[in-house]
Write a structure and sequence with these properties.
This protein is an alpha/beta fold. Helices cover 45% and strands 18% of the residues. The strands form 2 sheets. An 8-stranded mixed β-sheet has the order 6-5-7-4-8-9-10-11, with helices on both faces. The chain starts with a strand and ends with a helix. The structure holds guanosine-5'-triphosphate (GTP) and magnesium ion (MG).
């Protein structure tokens, strides 16, 4: 159900707005009337059943996958692997400098996809003095977490236990560090279970940030509307999605699509297999934009999936987290952090320490 709150001076004018925007099928979910210093006001929350699908369709158009897409995608991945095998002898690797070859082989050991390797090869072969970081930098986008992320609402989604709540708290703390006067609140959409709930509430109190809990689309719409009046950034912690859960159902349950200015951050870990990551990302195809937050990189031993995912989704990397505590375990993502992680096995925290030294 699409839920939206309309306001005006009279019931009649608000009902007219609802009819115009949602049509005859809209149902009234709640109504409030009052009078302030000067005027009367009326606020009505209305919902309409069919609109979700329409909005979902509009939002997913760019990503809309035909029936059987997953199977087709799997077959195409296999075909790509065969093609890569076939073309390998013709790659003329001898045209690369020894340094370039070593770097490419290193990426292959980190499970970087052959298709990505092929895309790196072309520019490298044209210039033996070129560092591999140049074409890599062209393939991967970074948008470091912080003030640059202007949208008011930020929603953290991802599999169970990947580090969504921890990332949300750390990213709020980082925002506050960059901008001490910023008014930030948490919206907990995962309050059915105890742990994350207590952690978020505790940190919100400790850091003087707002805290709300939501359970359905009506409390969600009202909460976001209220929070938007008092806070510059609203950070939503979503429940995890298991491999068999549907993101569309989650969106419908909370009425998530109705929020404007919402950036979705997919929280992922390189400790997951590439098949798991592909399946997880597939779930979130319906939402555009946002970023990828990579967590638990301190627990991973290869980082090729970070490169593969950046190339296949085109999404920017916004942050890396690298430890189980909440302090000094998250860094807004910069290209040099990924290069050092892959080529020197150095965690972003170590890079930051060197920078500050
Ligand atoms: N080593 C390491 N542990 C982490 C990192 N991020 C989170 N954790 C740990 O992973 C566990 C799960 O973190 P949460 O933030 O609760 O993860 P979640 O995705 O919110 O979990 P659910 O809400 O249960 O789905 C906690 O024990 C965290 O301390 C990280 O970057 N590195
Ligand atoms: Mg959580």
């Amino acid at each position: 159900m699409q839920v939206k709150t309309f306001s005006g001076q009279t019931t009649r004018s608000v009902l007219a707005q609802i009819k115009q925007e949602m049509g005859e099928e809209a149902v009234i979910l709640s109504k409030q009337e009052g009078k302030d210093a000067e005027n009367r006001w009326c606020q009505i929350t209305a919902g309409v059943e069919r609109a979700v699908d329409e909005i979902q369709e509009a939002e997913t158009q760019e990503y809309a996958a035909p029936a059987g897409w997953s199977r087709w995608h799997e077959e195409w991945s296999e075909i790509k692997e065969y093609i890569a095998e076939l073309v390998k002898p013709r790659l003329q690797l001898h045209k690369l400098s020894p340094r370039q070859r070593l770097a490419l082989e290193h990426l292959q050991r980190h499970d970087v996809d052959d298709t990505v390797i092929l895309r790196l090869l072309r520019p490298l072969k044209s210039d033996a003095s070129m560092s591999i970081l140049a074409p890599l930098g062209d393939l991967i986008k970074f948008k470091p977490w912080g003030n640059e992320w202007k949208s008011r609402v930020h929603t953290f989604v991802g599999p169970f236990g990947v580090g969504k709540t921890s990332a949300a708290v750390r990213m709020a703390l980082e925002l506050r560090r960059q901008n001490p006067s910023m008014r930030i609140c948490f919206v907990n959409a995962d309050c059915a279970r105890g742990n994350g709930r207590l952690l978020l509430r505790h940190y919100a109190q400790l850091c003087d940030m707002g805290y709300y809990e939501i359970r359905d689309s009506i409390t969600f719409a009202n909460t976001i509307r209220d929070a938007a009046k008092s806070y510059d950034r609203i950070i939503i912690d979503m429940p995890g999605l298991g491999l068999r859960d549907s993101f569309k159902e989650q969106v419908e349950h909370f009425g998530l699509h109705a929020i404007r200015e919402n950036s979705f951050h997919r929280v992922l870990s390189p400790t997951a297999s590439s098949k798991q990551l592909t399946a997880t990302l597939e779930k979130y195809r319906a939402v555009k934009g946002g970023s990828i937050v990579w967590t638990k990189i301190d627990e991973a031993c290869t980082f090729g999936t970070i490169i593969n995912t950046a190339v296949s989704t085109g999404l920017p990397i916004s942050a890396f987290s690298y430890g189980s505590g909440l302090k000094s375990t998250l860094a807004p993502a910069k290209d040099v952090m990924l290069w050092r992680l892959i080529f020197k096995n150095q965690l972003p925290g170590e890079y930051t320490i060197h920078q500050n030294a």
